[in-house]
Specification:
Pfam family, one: SBP_bac_3
Protein name: Ectoine/hydroxyectoine ABC transporter substrate-binding protein EhuB
Number of helices: 12
Number of strands: 15
Radius of gyration: 19 Å
Keywords: Signal
Organism: Streptomyces javensis
Shape: globular
Domain Solute-binding protein family 3/N-terminal: 46-278
């Protein structure tokens, strides 16, 4: 399971966009020799991006604007590829890959972690960031929770998000999923900690720190980032853009522009307003993460 990139949708506006987008699919059927989707997107001038509505990865803000770390990267790259317009298609995180494969949208632009399970279903760009985990805890961190082993040893009540990688990280140290509080998003997680329904909410460091800062919580705080492990080895959480398996031409063209942005420093300048720092930049490849 890769971590969820979801939540905080703009309600009815998001659903309206989803309905509108469903009427204009770009078919990749019959694609060969790397696919023809890029040519089709250039012809129509618009690419549809699947998002899961999570701040800061991809969401519709309070003004109805489509933004986030991944969409802002996509806007720049697709414009340079000859596709000037991007259209958001909000959906559940768990529906992103099925939606991509059924052509409900053209690209997953949701900060999705790249892992072998997902690589068996879609192809990925090289990652545009890597991430560590962090917790939301009560002010002062009274149970002194700094990693998943602490949660297990102190029998703390853990909450996390639907389909989050953090479920697997916790299970790896012995915490049963049936004992976890599974919530729709990080805002629900913050509220659960504030209300005492959970001792800790686990998520990615940027997500956790953003929601605590935005809510200006007086009852909860975010812990320092830490590295999660699986089977005793560091589990690298690195996210990128997902494409249908036959569309290698589009993925490769996207990668060319992404690498230029990394080399020039433009990538960091784009994502810095969303809480990303030099520490989250990476030279890892999708090939490494898929294996």
């Amino acid at each position: 399971m890769g971590p969820s990139r979801r939540a905080l949708l703009a309600g009815g506006a998001a659903l309206g966009l989803l309905g509108a987008a469903g009427c204009s699919r770009v078919s990749g059927s019959g694609a060969k020799d790397g696919g023809n989707l890029l040519e089709r997107l250039r012809s129509q001038g618009t690419v549809r991006l699947g998002i899961a509505g999570e701040i800061p990865f991809g969401y519709i803000d309070e003004n109805g604007e489509f933004t986030g770390e991944a969409p802002e990267i996509a806007k720049v790259i697709f414009k340079r590829l000859g596709v000037p317009k991007v259209q958001p298609v909000p959906t559940e995180f768990g529906s992103l890959i099925p939606g991509l494969r059924s052509q409900q949208f053209d690209v997953v632009s949701a900060g999705m972690y790249i892992n072998p399970e997902r690589c068996a279903q879609v192809i990925f760009s090289d990652p545009d960031y890597r991430m560590r985990d962090a917790f939301i805890v009560r002010k002062g961190n009274p149970k002194n929770l700094h990693n998943y082993e602490d949660i297990f040893k102190k029998k703390a009540k853990m909450a996390t998000g639907t389909a989050y990688a953090e479920i697997g990280y916790a299970e790896d140290v012995g915490i049963k999923q049936s004992d976890m509080l599974i919530l729709p998003d990080q805002l629900a997680g913050l509220l659960a900690v504030e209300q005492g329904r959970a001792d800790v909410f686990a998520g990615t460091t940027v997500t956790v720190h953003n929601v605590v800062k935005q809510r200006n919580s007086r009852l909860a705080e975010a812990t320092e980032p830490f590295q999660a492990y699986v089977d005793g080895k560091p589990d690298i959480g690195a996210g990128g853009f997902a494409f249908r398996p036959e569309e290698t031409k589009l993925r490769d063209a996207f990668n060319v522009e992404l690498h230029k942005m990394k080399k020039s420093g433009e990538l960091l300048r784009i994502v810095r307003p969303f809480g990303f720092t030099e520490e989250e930049m990476t030279d890892l490849t999708a090939k490494e993460l898929c294996s």
